[in-house]
Amino acid sequence: MSQTKGVKLGDTTQQRLAALGRIRDGSPHWLMCRAIETYLDREEKYEQEKREDMERWEQYQLTGVAVPHEQAAEWLENLAQGKVGIRIIECLEIFDIVFHLSTISSAQNCYAEADD
Length: 116
Hints:
The protein has 116 residues and is mainly α. The protein is 78% helix and 0% strand. It contains 4 helices and no strands. It is elongated and about 55 Å long.
């Protein structure tokens, strides 16, 4: 069910919406709906990734299991050369752990700043 929501827009924003609407052959209303949907999709994905990163970080803190940089780099090189064989699932799990652990500390800093 649709509901009307009021949003106050400045003159410049209204002019930009009207101009883009003419170029795209769409109404400002259509553009605003698309912009909101795009924003929500992006932000929901970000929140999901943030939750997954924190779950991985907590798992790492509990288990201490990590993949050495050299092993991850070797796997990535083999992947790039098409040499990944029967251990693809194991390698994907390794890559997933390495990729997310490499961004955890910077991600934690961002999350902490966002929560303040």
